[in-house]
Amino acid sequence: MGRSLRRAGALALALLALSGCPAPPGQATLPATPAPSQAQGTTPAIDAPSAPPSKKSPRPTPPPASDRVPPLSAETRPKTPSAPLLPRPGPAPIRRLWTGLLYPRALAASPAGEVYVIDKTGLIRCLDRDGRERVQVRTPAIENGTPSAMAWHPSGRLLVADSHYGRVLIYGPDLNLLDLWGAHGREPGRFMLLTGIAASEDGRIYVSDQGDDVARVQIFDLGGALLGSFGQFGSRAGELNRPMGLAIFGEEVAVADSLNHRVQVFDLDGSAVRRWGRLGDVPGDLKYPYGLSFDASGRLFVAEQGNHRLQLVDTSPAWTFGKPGRQPGDLSSPWAVLALGDRLFVTDGGNNRLYELAAPPAPTR
What is the CA angle 55-56-62, rounded to 5? Predict the structure, then answer.
């Protein structure tokens, strides 16, 4: 009975967020800010999948090729380009910031140091090391919703979690679409709603997936074949409730366990290793963690939607950046964070901008 009530409560919370109703008690909110083309809210939620879930399959097989969603034809894809992004300086520790985005919410970086960002218009932009836009492309379809996560694959490809279409998009460095795979469904190998993506050094692709009582991380090869999965709905160690961002460092994968207000770390085969966080707003506490990124030394940065800040977890002294607000240096519903050398990027979603910060120095040993 207690487990059923927890599931019902989590589903009610998700439906409340999707309806546009006020955020849960204790959730910090900000006044609405007009976006370039529409107003943006601050509720930490994502849209529901457009396709109904299928009945549970007794066998964990990946979706057949005939079930994969094909891209839209060139004639039906959006063609209107947006103005190229240009950086401008900001007050320390902000090095640069970009405006002209509409709720940016995913980041990735290539080994060459180029940064990829996507916003809620489905537009992926590649920024060179000088912060200037090099190329842009829109995802194949945006009518049902837009991607919520990206990651770089060691084969030199950009992985995009096309959340509302139940698929993974695979691009080249110049944003030419190379492949796509996936299908809606709750069966193993399918997706309810993709919310995070990461790749290990050996090329395995980890995808967080949630919806109804599904809360899991699935593992695939580059061609979309299912290799394994871990996690189930719940609040105990190893269980998940709306898993969001993923990050991999060495032999460990971190999962933003957002509705449990914690980060869980697993080994690459899915065994729980450790966890951090509890609901709260003091350093060390978390509120709706969404984005994760490890730096080169293994420190983990967390973007918290509920506390409107970045936090470096499990460190002393504590380090945070941001507070609720609209001024430079403030944050509103940050979705993604990216640690890249001595640079730290964060999407300031509710303020329609992207920051590049000077990363806090790593401790000397």
Answer: 110
